[in-house]
Specification:
CATH topology: TIM Barrel
CATH architecture: Alpha-Beta Barrel
Order of helices and strands: HEHHHHEHHEHEHEHEHEHEHHHH
Bound molecules: zinc ion
Structural class: alpha/beta
Largest sheet: 8 strands, parallel
Strand order of the largest sheet: 1-2-3-4-5-6-7-8
Helix content: 40-55%
CATH class: Alpha Beta
Length: 340
């Protein structure tokens, strides 16, 4: 149970978010609206029905991907992609998220024959409108589907060339165990030459080897999840020494840590590893406020630790450091208020 002050801190504190996937985050209201507009039949027709469907059909990653594809099928036209990003921006504003790094997993759209330009133009227009209407800065990370052949992923990165004014990073997600990150070394080399910030999902369901390779072979500047780092003391020291951000999503890891209090974020932070928290895929696991709430209720995090996490989400972001002076000012004002 949160105190009133803690509830207010979570809600009112300006926050960044470093790890959220557009395609896995289509808000319920948006999915239903687009399904109606595009005459797509879904196995639910209410927001509650969609959430119930998700919770009963997404027990593992394979099921999640089936669900993800089903919900993404509502997006067909540029205006649909615009709407998704615009509504995500509205949700960000509601949570006092001021800066958000969104993975755009275009391959999920490509397999339905949607041209890249349709998706990218919609996302970019949405991003501009979100900044104008909500004051939320969105940054895009292009996501490789690691289960696809390396040559296809390399082609995807090369195809980003016309969009370098809207994409700032490259990432990698989907099934980890059978698809080690080194399969995509060439794609990351090309991304590096294009000046993209490099991150990868590693050490989520896979092991520490994948984190080491992401750092030392792919040259990643960040690791998404990275919870398995806790198994390797040398890796923990490496992450801490190099100030590599682990962009964690503790609610999203509930299959990995059936007892939430056992989550690796606590011992990793205690050993000096820099972490931030994000929602990953809100319709499936809850929004960022819910993520912060879980840190208090499940892990016993205190006010200062939540502030550190929020600050990390800006300081170790791709380009959100300019928000730090305002964030620090907000914290000074907050601290000056009496505790209850
Ligand atoms: Zn993710």
């Amino acid at each position: 149970m949160l105190t009133e002050r803690m509830e207010r801190l979570i809600r009112e504190m300006p926050k960044g978010e470093n790890h959220i996937h557009i395609e896995g985050s289509i808000p319920t209201r948006t999915a239903l609206r687009l399904a109606k507009r595009n005459k797509i039949v879904l196995p639910f027709d209410t927001e509650t029905g969609m959430l119930d469907y998700i919770h009963t059909h997404c027990g593992n990653l394979d099921m999640f991907m089936v669900c993800d594809r089903l919900i993404n099928s509502v997006c067909l036209h540029e205006e649909d992609y615009y709407d998704v990003v615009y509504d995500l921006g509205e949700d960000a504003k509601r949570q006092n998220i001021i800066y958000q790094e969104l993975h755009l997993d275009y391959p999920l759209n490509e397999e339905r024959g949607i041209p890249m330009d349709v998706v990218m133009r919609g996302y970019e227009a949405g991003r501009k409108a979100v900044l104008k209407d909500f004051g939320v800065e969105l940054v895009f990370i292009a996501g490789i589907d690691r289960s696809q052949p390396p040559e296809k992923c390399t082609a995807f990165v090369k195809n980003l060339e016309p969009y370098l004014d809207m994409v700032d990073g490259i990432g990698m997600d989907c099934e980890e165990i059978s698809y080690p990150c080194i399969l995509h070394k060439e794609a990351y080399e090309i991304a590096g030459k294009m000046g993209l910030f490099k991150t990868a999902h590693a050490g989520e369901e896979g092991d520490c080897r994948n984190i080491w390779d992401a750092l030392n072979v792919l040259g990643c500047q960040r690791i998404d999840h990275g919870v398995r780092a806790i198994d390797d003391p040398a890796l923990v020291r490496e992450l801490a020494d190099r100030k590599i951000l682990l962009a964690m999503c503790t609610r999203s890891n509930r299959r990995l840590f059936p007892t939430p209090a056992d989550h690796a974020i606590k011992p990793l932070m205690a050993q000096g590893v820099i972490c931030s928290v994000s929602s990953d895929d809100p319709p499936y696991v809850g929004d960022l406020l819910w993520e912060y709430q879980g840190l208090v209720e499940d892990l016993g995090f205190d006010e200062d630790t939540l502030i550190t996490l929020a600050r990390n989400s800006l300081e170790y972001s791709i380009k959100g450091q300019h928000h730090l002076p305002a964030f620090d000012e907000w914290v000074r004002n907050w601290k000056s208020q009496s505790t209850d």
